[in-house]
Amino acid sequence: MPDPVAIGIDLGGTQVRVALVQGGRVLARASEPTDVAGGPEAVLRQFARLTEKVTARADPLDIIGVGVASPGPLDSGTGTIIDIPTLPGWSGFPLRDMLTKQMRLPVVLENDGIAAAFGEWRHGAGQGLRHLVYVTVSTGIGGGVIIDDRVLRGRRGMAGHVGHMPVVLDGPVCSCGGQGCFEALASGRALGRAARAGVASCPDSRLSAEPPDILSAQHVVAAARQGDALALRLLDDEARYLGLGFTGLIHLFSPEAVIMGGGVSQAFDLLSPGIHSGIQERAMAAFRNVRVLKAGLGENSGLIGAAALALDIEGATA
Amino acid sequence: MPDPVAIGIDLGGTQVRVALVQGGRVLARASEPTDVAGGPEAVLRQFARLTEKVTARADPLDIIGVGVASPGPLDSGTGTIIDIPTLPGWSGFPLRDMLTKQMRLPVVLENDGIAAAFGEWRHGAGQGLRHLVYVTVSTGIGGGVIIDDRVLRGRRGMAGHVGHMPVVLDGPVCSCGGQGCFEALASGRALGRAARAGVASCPDSRLSAEPPDILSAQHVVAAARQGDALALRLLDDEARYLGLGFTGLIHLFSPEAVIMGGGVSQAFDLLSPGIHSGIQERAMAAFRNVRVLKAGLGENSGLIGAAALALDIEGATA
């Protein structure tokens, strides 16, 4: 009998991605820009269309379930979206039940950070660990936590909103409405903002060549790789902020490792020394040897993790 | 058959307390100032002496175990002290094994924050909850976490160091060596420091009557109860800082409630409105209705919790 197969769905604010997944491998994948304006009904049709594509050559009998990774907050217990800041019209939508009807398969709905943490634990950089914190640093900062060999869920399955740990008293306003959150300080969006502020006083930087309104974290990383002084300084600050936030997470959860994913982790080689020296400097002695690792599944952590949750009902409901 | 009885020991930097505990009730209790200079050997003799006192009228056959709550970091898996900043000479001391030999009873060693969390969960303000974060706000800030009906332990059992979440970038130096930790901002020690700074510019405050070098959080609370304007302003700030830190913990762990213990919780009635409005203001919508409760067991949370862990081997080892 072949290993069971599941469908992984990654619902994002810009893209819907669907994959056929077996163990840690993506067998087929398809994506479309998210039909934000169309709301849940249109997106459910996108799910159907993309699923048809990726399962075209699969035996339907081998597919045992569907895992959906979605931005939160969502209630993974009831399978209902609570609120997605980037997707209006989804509040209170019973996504799991609607999709179960449409797909005629068991469906697991999970916060995208928790799904990615699960993917990294089962098939990525966290294999064999008992305790890990996964942090995705992209436009925002999200994450998920595995401690004591279990997925940390909490009330309504909402544990692990690591981007909304306060790290700067009266700091910059955050997407969540709060102030000074880890996300507001260290996300890709914050790095882009720092770059736009930085070019004003560094006209010689390569970054000054970009139109300021599109200047983003990616440009900073590219310029740093070419030795640009401003870009390197911006990444030094970014590493320091990440080291600060990761130290907090290490004290709170006591993981064996912090796993970093998301777009900004493409600069992991440049950020890692600064992150680790920040932890060395700030963590209590007993926590200082905790390592930060780059995610092993790249942009597929959530997709593979969602499918893995569907394949591992014990993990999903434990 | 009577309910089983356990010995609870609370090893503190200033006091050693020992109690005979049945369920959530303290049957007998005794204490001595901690023999800090004498190190572990002297303190083990204190444990023996105090245990003799509290068990003088008990049937030894009813006593099924010993639970020790100790400052950390400690490794609850191996029963070894890692390091206690307030107690020199304890690093690496195998407290659980030494005490097992001395007492001839099964011994559980637990971080005092986790023990108190367990006590509040089983017998205090957290009874019936599935998810709670316990925070003790006294000289420092410590805590423990129960999520998904289990004690959160993590690597070496060191999860829940909630006092060392960074909340102020480049903030005041913390007892842990870091900077800007929640403890450095919102502990009783920090409140005392703020009071000493405040009296300089408020000579009319009742607090100016105290010798500045002994001015502490307790004086602030007492003066606030008499309507002193400076003391009330200091407590407003304290409530704001607590609300900030608790909001972070709510986003990270998704508890049903935060339970506040420790000396500063004696002012819970004065602090609660400010704490709750801070959470209302800063938390993401889905988390805003999480309540902060005053600890139900007062200064006995750790003592009762340690004994409860000894009585509940499943809870202790789960």
Automatic annotation (TrEMBL), chains A, B:
SUPFAM superfamilies, sorted: Actin-like ATPase domain
InterPro entries: ATPase_NBD, ROK, ROK_cs
Recorded family membership: Belongs to the ROK (NagC/XylR) family.
Name by which UniProt lists this protein: ROK family protein
Organism: Rubellimicrobium rubrum
